[in-house]
């Protein structure tokens, strides 16, 4: 899966520079990976680096093949990426928006295969009824699901999702995680998802990477190894009780911030 070696990156504007990573090394596992960490830790920057949007130092590889030196066509074949920021306005319908997700595969016209993949994806996200609606008139959560559909129709080997459950209701959050789990298991796809909901991460992730506020790795491993009261206090500054369900999945019950507010 993805291995990150000696990643260093700074955002630069005019003469100012903001370093996010200094010689970061980490590995993701096959399957369902989650990146956790507080605001500003560098989670989005890490995903953007993997997708090749940033000019970083170091090497990122997928199954030992360097993505860093891969050409753009091969990168697009390998990965699809859902950014955190969504476009709000479009004159297209939902169906047209999702078909756009297959742009690299389209050969001058939309084939029956393209349409089948798009319709199957809409059905798997329970949004078939939105297909002919105008995108701009959807709710925030419905728009999010359209962007997720756009990301999935590419049928990539690696899916990168930056906070995909934001603005989804509780049922849709669970359904999306279950769908991602199904895609991982049935289609042999690896995913890396940024989540702020630690309980969702605990339930669905096979491997968790925790970044601390300095953009360093605090810990990585299986949810039950990584999600601890100590981690919640040291990384998130939160006092929390942990209980375990019958499958030994940790459930966190936050009590308070370590700061007196
Ligand atoms: N375009 C940019 N220019 C300068 N600094 C940036 C830029 N984008 C992000 N940063 C800074 O880089 C650091 C990491 O940002 P990043 O968006 O990767 O964090 P994050 O962990 O995804 O945060 P969040 O959970 O709030 O989305 C932050 O300190 C942020 O202020």
Automatic annotation (TrEMBL):
Q: Which GO terms describe its cellular component?
A: plasma membrane
Q: Which GO terms describe its biological process?
A: iron ion transport
Q: What Pfam families would the database entry show?
A: ABC_tran
Top-level taxon of the source organism: Bacteria
Keyword list (alphabetical) reads: ATP-binding, Cell membrane, Ion transport, Iron, Iron transport, Membrane, Nucleotide-binding, Transport
Keyword ATP-binding recorded: yes
PROSITE patterns the UniProt entry points to: ABC_TRANSPORTER_1, ABC_TRANSPORTER_2
Record's keyword annotation contains Nucleotide-binding:
yes
- Cellular localization per UniProt: Cell membrane
Cite the GO molecular-function annotations of the record. ATP binding; ATP hydrolysis activity
Please give the name of this protein: ATP-binding cassette domain-containing protein
Question: Upper taxonomic classification of the species?
Answer: Bacteria, Bacillati, Bacillota, Clostridia, Eubacteriales
